[in-house]
Amino acid sequence: xxxxxxxxxxxxxxxxxxxxxxxxxxxxxxxxxxxxxxxxxxxxxxxxxxxxxxxxxxxxxxxxxxxxxxxxxxxxxxxxxxxxxxxxxxxxxxxxxxxxxxxxxxxxxxxxxxxxxxxxxxxxxxxxxxx
Length: 131
Hints:
Order of helices and strands: EEEEEEEEEE
Distance between the termini: 32 Å
Number of domains: 1
Helix content: under 10%
Low-confidence stretches: 23-45
Strand order of the largest sheet: 7-8-9-10
Strand content: 35-45%
Mean pLDDT: 79
């Protein structure tokens, strides 16, 4: 979000769990009276979530500890969309950016696997397509 937060919503209770990001300081705020719930598998390697930023980075977070696990830095524009890979590509992240590129990342190594160029303007959303 533009307010430097990431919110995870519990669709059953409408409660949300918020990561507040202030430079390199990360604070996990649970809006359910500080009671922790089992959030479940979000994607990637288990209890993680990824965020794209206007600082041209993708960050992977541990949602139980609110600690940053990795930063992916090859984009040169705002990162508008990130998506965990499906089962057969479980250890990957796909991203789209204002730099007109789509990039595929390896979660385990933290390295970029592939750059897909060809868009003439910003990429606002990415999705894996099953074949």
